[in-house]
Write a structure and sequence with these properties.
The complex is a heterodimer of chains A (152) and B (504). Chain A is α+β, with helices and mostly antiparallel strands and 152 residues long. Chain A contains three helices and four strands. A four-stranded antiparallel β-sheet of chain A has the order 1-2-3-4. Chain B is mainly α and 504 residues long. Chain B has 19 helices and 14 strands. Chain B has a three-stranded antiparallel β-sheet with strand order 1-5-6, with helices on one face. The longest helix of chain B is centred in the C-terminal third of the chain and has 67 residues. Chain B is flat, with a radius of gyration of 60 Å. The chains are: A alpha+beta (152), B mainly alpha (504). Chains A and B meet through helix 1 of A and helix 1 of B. Chain B: InterPro entries: Znf_RING (IPR001841), Znf_RING/FYVE/PHD (IPR013083), Znf_RING_CS (IPR017907), Znf_TRAF (IPR001293). Chain B: One of its GO terms (molecular function) is zinc ion binding.
Chain lengths: 152, 504
């Protein structure tokens, strides 16, 4: 029995393979319908010039009704970008990954949103409560109840 | 929807695709507020997750969802789809709304239940008529009886119309009597009935009675019966004994475990009962009371070498006979021995040594008759006191004895502490009295001195100014004034009148 999530993801994967990713975003791994990896870099003038980050998507059976778990990969020499909404363990405080998720959004849409979030950054700094959060953070960022204050 | 995901022949128009599942609408629904259209299943699931329109995030309730326009419905329902049994071989394509009917009635590759009454198998519709299942009846070629297909093999081996040839007696028999014939065939090779007792005879069944009359095992048949019965009882007994041993072993293991627990809890007091019985003595006599620094009690400290060894193992900081060992040698001893209790006891010995030095420095020179007369308090001149104050723990008695001894020594310690407190109280009072007297005498001497200075000053002033003694009224009330007033003349005066001071 193919679930709605795997059908939808198969569709998205086919679109990525047919049409390609937007500039600066590359699919690295999509072997199954549970974990996908993308590399993301910010094009043009920005604070993150020549930096490349890896994004990890984790999907559950409820996708696309519920949001995927999205975070930056911080192992094997990879770093999370220094950004006011990105914690050093890779977790991202973005409303579209939390309460403003909509089933209309797709994996590529999330990638593009995060890319523009990085591109519009004015100052490279960690979130103010980074140390406290990273110490107690759950493994899955979806388990965190972020308080969204900025416009992302 | 019967088939979960129909395969569309052509890529559908994007306007007919649900933005949640990214497939053409299935049972499309439109919400009245913002006119967005979704599949019914998709929007119901999405609203259960969060009550807003997935596209514009406006508030949306399930009551606002209504079936979409018939035009949209027909557009998606008329999309061409492939049969969902394509993988099985059906190449049929039709409108989506007709797919269910095709699969239900026409598709030759749809699975349908076997027409036989009791068969649970599913077969392709096209194979249904030619299907031979376990419940199809077939006719036996020999006896022409109607037999179920799955029972045919079994029937063949015992069909009364079929014959087989016995391999031993070479006589044709009907199949139906095959089982009974094998047990009665006179030519079949059989073994002696005493085979399990060791008889090696083997021959045709018809020779067996002849063998039985000559078989040596047959003659002791009764003995075998008795032996067999006895073996059976012995086996039973053996089994019971084995079980008993198992239980005993497990009990023993539990006991050993408990013993080890007790042993570790007892620590150094765990001893064999034989070795302890030789050295039983009353606990109080083994103990040293700290307020007895005489030779008799200190000699009790020195025990036999073996005892001392076992004790120094636990109290490495208390050296028994060579108390003048250098700190370096003591360090060596500590490092050589495992000393689990050392940290607990080293502060005690440190206390005793500092106690002695306290006596040395602050009170040795002071003339206090009370202290030297009691004689029980160590005055700190001899180096023996650190060892005498703390009695060693006796490990030769029972644990209760040692505890009692410890309690006694605590009682003795508290009494001696009490007497020490009282003695120091008395000493303090005496000293305070003496100091008080001295202060009084000093005050008197100071007063006399002041009076003399006063007289001299009056005389002097009278000589210089020629005026009368009326001026002294300004010196008497203000004592604080006159040191600054005649500072320059104070020294010669003190030097000039040593006699008047010594007179006091």
């Amino acid at each position: 029995m193919t679930s709605i999530s795997s059908r939808r993801l198969a569709k998205e994967l086919m679109e990525i393979k047919n049409d390609g990713c937007p500039v600066g975003i590359n699919l690295v791994q999509a072997d199954d319908f549970s974990i996908w990896l993308f590399t993301i870099e910010v094009m043009g003038e920005s604070l993150y010039q020549n930096e490349q980050f890896t994004l990890q998507f984790r999907f559950d059976q409820q996708y696309p009704i519920s949001s995927p778990a999205v975070q930056f990969v911080v192992t094997e020499g990879r770093q999370a970008p220094v950004h006011p909404h990105v914690y050093s363990n890779g977790h991202i405080c973005a409303s579209i990954l939390g309460n403003e998720w909509s089933p209309v959004l797709s994996v590529i849409a999330v990638c593009v949103t995060l890319q523009s979030m990085l591109a519009s950054c004015k100052e490279k700094q960690r979130p103010v409560d980074n140390d406290r959060y990273v110490k107690h953070a759950p493994e899955n960022p979806k388990k965190t109840r972020f308080h969204y204050d900025g416009e992302v | 929807m019967n088939s979960p995901s129909p395969i569309y022949v052509e890529a559908p128009n994007q306007n007919l695709v649900c933005c949640i599942c990214r497939m053409p609408f299935v049972d499309p629904c439109t919400n009245q507020a913002c006119s967005h259209t979704f599949c019914r299943d998709c929007i119901i699931q999405s609203l259960a997750h969060s009550p807003q329109c997935p596209i514009d995030r406006s508030t949306l309730r399930i009551e606002d969802i209504h079936p979409a326009d018939p035009i949209i419905r027909s557009l998606v329902d008329e999309l061409a789809v492939k049969c969902s049994n394509e993988s099985a071989g059906c190449l049929h394509t039709c409108q989506r709304q007709l797919l269910d009917a095709h699969i239900k009635t026409d598709c030759p590759y749809a699975l349908v239940p076997c027409s036989a009454h009791a068969c649970a198998e599913e077969v392709f519709r096209k194979d249904k008529d030619g299907h031979i299942c376990a419940h199809t009846s077939v006719t036996c070629e020999e006896c022409e009886k109607s037999i179920k297909y799955n029972e045919l093999e079994a029937h063949r081996s015992r069909c009364p119309k079929r014959f087989f040839q016995c391999e031993d007696c070479e006589i044709e028999q009907p199949c139906s009597s095959r089982a009974t014939h094998t047990s009665s065939c006179y030519a079949v090779t059989v073994k002696c009935s005493h085979e399990h007792h060791g008889c090696p005879w083997e021959g045709r069944r018809k020779d067996l009675p002849a063998h039985t009359t000559t078989c040596s095992y047959e003659s002791i048949k009764g003995f075998f019966a008795i032996q067999d019965a006895r073996n059976a009882t012995l086996d039973n007994q053996n089994m019971l004994l084995k079980q008993k041993i198992d239980t005993l072993e497990s009990q023993l293991r539990v006991a050993q475990f408990e013993l080890r627990c007790a042993q570790s809890a007892l620590g150094p007091w765990f001893r064999d009962s034989t070795s302890r019985s030789t050295s039983v003595s009353s606990p109080s006599s083994q103990l040293l009371i700290p307020s007895q620094p005489n030779g008799a009690s200190s000699s009790r400290l020195y025990m036999s070498p073996s005892d001392q060894d076992s004790i120094t193992q636990y109290f490495p900081d208390i050296s028994f006979d060579d108390r003048h060992t250098s700190p370096l040698a003591e360090e060596e001893q500590r490092s050589q021995r495992p000393a689990p209790d050392r940290p607990a006891f080293s502060p005690l010995t440190q206390y005793s040594s500092s106690h002695v030095s306290f006596n040395d420095t602050s009170f040795n020179g002071a003339p206090i008759p009370n202290w030297s007369s009691t004689g029980s308090f160590p005055t700190g001149t001899g180096p023996r006191s650190p060892q005498n104050i703390v009695a060693p723990l006796n490990l030769n008695t029972t644990l209760e004895g040692s505890l009692q001894g410890l309690r006694e020594s605590v009682v003795a310690l508290s009494t001696s502490l009490d007497s020490l407190g009282r003695r120091s109280d008395i000493a303090l009072t005496n000293e305070a009295l003496r100091l008080n007297e001295e202060v009084m005498s000093l005050r008197a001497a100071l007063h006399g001195l002041r009076m003399q200075v006063h007289t001299i000053m009056i005389d002097h002033n009278a000589q210089v100014t020629g005026r009368g003694p009326g001026i002294d009224s300004m010196f008497v009330p203000g004592d604080s004034q006159w040191p600054s007033f005649n500072l320059s003349r104070a020294h010669p005066m003190q030097n000039a009148s040593p006699n008047s001071i010594t007179k006091l």
